[in-house]
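Anyone have tokens for Transcription factor CBF/NF-Y/archaeal histone domain-containing protein? Sequence:
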Amino acid sequence: MSQTVSPSSPGPSAVSPSKPQAKAARGTSIFPTARVARIIKADRDVDICSKEATFLISVATEIFLKRLTDEAYTNAKLDKRKNVLYKDLSRAVQQNEYLEFLKDAIPTPVALSTALEARQQKSQQRQLEEEMILEGTLQQDDEDEQEEEEEEEEEEDEDEDEDEDEQEQEQEQEQEQEQEDAAEEEATDDHADQDRAEEQDVPADDHSTRAVRVKTSSKKSAPKKSKSRSKFTDSQDDVQMLNDTDQDDQ
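Reply: yep, here.
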């Protein structure tokens, strides 16, 4: 169903379906191509748009507007009216899911007092959200500072534990070194005692061997007399030789 905007109406609030819509010639659009191209170029995300794409966008816009006006005219007919009003368009937007993106552009009409109250509530809600965000930010900052302090304390505790471990290791190493030194000193003392004992034992052996040699030499050099005389002489000689060797050693 086609309808046109009535030129006698004061604004876009009334549409008259009495006059048939002028159909565009085949391969053309009712929208000026140059103006559509300027609107497309206004988008910074679009660098180049060909003529064919511009034409297709114009045709798609025509189809979209036709469906929107058809929905609005249906609402006007339900109210037993022939003119399409703003509330018919807003009802069409609210009733159709594919027109939800127009809710902000074509909102439901409300009284001025209601609109002011809604605006005030919206501003209060926005202010409350900002305060909550600010409080949350401050609280987050406090939590971050507390976490940083806890991390610093943990690092300090870890450093102290490491220092204590190092001190304990150093003490253990010192104790082990002292034990090793003491063991070496004991071993050295034992070797020294053994050397001294050996030094003391060697002269005694030499002394005994000398005594034996003296006995044998005295027996060989003494003249053969009577048995009793020879035994007595040998004993005297042995005692004399032992005394001489003791004096020599001293």
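The first strand starts at residue 4 and ends at 5.
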